[in-house]
Write a sequence for this structure.
């Protein structure tokens, strides 16, 4: 199946290593024959809202066609992190909270937040929201705790009124389970955890995405870089969701200057292998 959309792309306005320009994103998509696409720079908390403002201002400098959309990728945060940023409680400790407070080991109290308001959405012309997990809340101490923590976050995103697309499910679970965030080395990555996610949890998540009218993302960057067995376990879950009526988007999650064409071919092969057709894909209801 030829990929005809790319709804998850980062530009140089993202706070991380992303480096593509907005005009290059368009030019590259036109070369790839992509019919609908959108830029989705990262928003973690209000602390990095200026990135979105600058992305939007840049976007408005060009007379882009209507099939080039302006979105964001928002991170599921612990509520206390957003509260700490709102109160200005970070300069005193000398930390710059672009990614929240990853070193603050207070226990996760179960409260989550997306640090954006409807007013921010309107003011920045945000047409759609991709919601993603980028790290654990707290420090899970076992595989099952890591899975449970990620499941809670995915469910929060799937039920959140501002989220249109649930991004790269289970992304970074291997790092949460391996305690990478405390150690930050290769020895603390637990790929096996991806094969231990209970079927019941996968089904409940698919049901919740479907019931709430959200779209699930097939993330090219992650699915084409996993080992065969991890990729298969995820694609089987998505194939199951497809049978349950879930509709999907595709996103390259490009951070490089230009898209990786080999990854697109690899992803198209995965789609064919797991029986995906054009009918399984949709676009978010863009806010105007
Ligand atoms: Zn992401
Ligand atoms: Zn991304």
């Amino acid at each position: 199946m030829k990929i005809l959309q790319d709804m998850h792309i980062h530009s140089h306005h993202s706070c991380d290593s992303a480096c593509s320009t907005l005009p290059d994103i368009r030019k590259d998509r036109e070369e790839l024959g992509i019919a609908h696409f959108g830029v989705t720079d990262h928003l973690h908390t209000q602390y990095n809202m200026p990135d979105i403002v600058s992305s939007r201002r840049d976007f408005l400098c060009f007379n882009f066609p209507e099939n080039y959309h302006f979105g964001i990728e928002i991170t599921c945060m612990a509520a206390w992190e957003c509260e700490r940023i709102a109160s200005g409680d970070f300069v005193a400790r000398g930390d710059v909270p672009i990614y929240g407070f990853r070193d603050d080991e207070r226990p996760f109290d179960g409260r989550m937040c997306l640090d954006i308001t409807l007013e921010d959405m309107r003011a920045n012309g945000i047409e759609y929201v991709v919601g993603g997990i980028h790290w654990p809340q707290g420090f899970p101490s076992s595989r099952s705790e890591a899975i449970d923590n990620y499941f809670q976050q995915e469910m929060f995103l799937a039920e959140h009124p501002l989220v249109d697309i649930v991004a790269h499910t289970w992304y970074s679970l291997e790092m949460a389970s391996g305690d990478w965030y405390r150690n930050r080395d290769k020895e603390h990555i637990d790929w096996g955890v991806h094969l231990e996610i209970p079927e019941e949890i996968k089904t409940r998540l698919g049901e919740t995405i479907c019931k709430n009218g959200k779209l699930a993302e097939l993330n090219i960057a992650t699915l084409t870089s996993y080992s065969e067995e991890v990729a298969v376990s995820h694609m089987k879950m998505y194939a199951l969701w497809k049978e349950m009526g879930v509709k999907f988007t595709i996103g390259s999650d490009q951070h490089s200057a230009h898209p990786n064409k080999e990854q697109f071919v690899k992803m198209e092969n995965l789609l064919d292998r797991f029986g995906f057709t054009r009918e399984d894909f949709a676009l978010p209801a863009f806010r105007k």
